[in-house]
């Protein structure tokens, strides 16, 4: 069952547009949202959480978020924090108590202890990593059923990143919980994502279960002298190194591979590096 259905989402800026962005976020799973810089991840996420005007529909549990945003059930972590900078943590708690029907103050303070955030600190005094932890504590303490995370781990040190992923895994133990997780740190997705949505130049290129996503591609390597023997129409991107060339191809287009090529391991990182690259 899908928890969120995003259909024909269009958004136009002067130099960029989202083009009929359509994908689903399955209930009970972590969906990783990937794409190179500037390809439209944040614009899509801002539309999903109604921070953007857009055309199209975003259906969450039978509610069209475009018309009626359900902030009680949705937790958001992104750079644009919705918290007033002068609030200290005690005030944050008070404001959340008013704003959320299911606010659990005890749980909130227990997360703050776990994350080593002092109640007396003001929002403006927190580092990026601490703000991310605070937003995670808020999302978990109002019992959100959907977490929308825009590059949440990019300001975190490796141990906190691991802890963040562990907390998301704990959160996913409830089968009614769902996560959309945009990131450039593909190791995080390899450990916790079940599905991958891949956006490029404002268009959804693929939306698949993670293993199917990795099997969709092949990475082939050959010597410089054999680079022109490949079927160009199957090539999705290539990188010319000093002595070799790497090609990203669709696996279905390259079932039989000539012995001039060797297959390399496919990873989300290599797909990101090679996709759309011309030299
Ligand atoms: N408010 C805005 N006004 C005009 N253009 C914008 C605005 N916000 C984003 N853009 C443009 O839209 C494009 C997509 O930006 P977006 O932030 O969605 O990309 P992204 O995939 O999240 O990138 P990154 O990985 O770098 O965070 C970029 O070219 C950006 O300059």
TrEMBL record:
Pfam families: ABC_tran (PF00005). Keywords: ATP-binding, Nucleotide-binding, Transport. GO terms for molecular function: ATP binding; ATP hydrolysis activity. Residues 1-226 form the ABC transporter domain. InterPro entries: AAA+_ATPase, ABC_transporter-like_ATP-bd, ABC_Transporter_VariousFunc, P-loop_NTPase. Signal peptide: none annotated. PANTHER family: ABC TRANSPORTER ATP-BINDING COMPONENT, ABC TRANSPORTER ATP-BINDING PROTEIN ALBC-RELATED. This is ABC transporter domain-containing protein. The lineage of its organism: Bacteria, Bacillati, Bacillota, Clostridia, Lachnospirales.
């Amino acid at each position: 069952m899908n928890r969120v259905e995003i259909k024909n989402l269009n958004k136009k800026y002067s130099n960029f547009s989202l083009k009929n962005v359509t994908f689903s976020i399955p209930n009970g799973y972590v969906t990783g949202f990937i794409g190179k810089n500037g390809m439209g991840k944040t614009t899509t996420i801002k539309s999903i959480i109604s921070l953007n005007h857009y055309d199209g529909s975003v259906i969450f549990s039978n509610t069209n978020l475009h018309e009626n945003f359900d902030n009680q059930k949705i937790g958001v972590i992104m750079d644009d924090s919705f918290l007033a900078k002068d609030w200290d943590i005690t005030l944050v708690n008070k404001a959340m108590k008013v704003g959320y029907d299911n606010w659990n103050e005890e749980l909130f303070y227990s997360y703050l202890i776990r994350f080593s955030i002092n109640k007396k600190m003001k929002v403006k005094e927190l580092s990026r990593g601490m703000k991310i932890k605070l937003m995670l504590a808020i999302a978990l303490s109002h019992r959100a059923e959907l977490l929308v995370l825009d590059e949440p781990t990019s300001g975190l040190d490796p141990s906190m990143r691991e802890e963040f992923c562990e907390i998301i895994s704990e959160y996913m133990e409830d089968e009614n919980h769902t996560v959309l997780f945009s990131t450039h740190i593909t190791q995080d997705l390899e450990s916790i994502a079940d599905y991958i949505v891949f956006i490029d130049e404002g268009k959804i290129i693929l939306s698949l279960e993670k293993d199917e996503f990795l099997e969709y591609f092949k990475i082939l390597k050959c010597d410089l002298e054999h680079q022109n023997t490949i079927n160009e129409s199957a090539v999705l991107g290539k990188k010319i190194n000093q002595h070799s060339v790497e090609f990203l191809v669709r696996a279905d287009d390259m079932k039989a591979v000539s012995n001039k090529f060797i297959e390399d391991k496919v990873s989300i990182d290599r797909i990101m590096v090679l996709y759309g690259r011309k030299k």
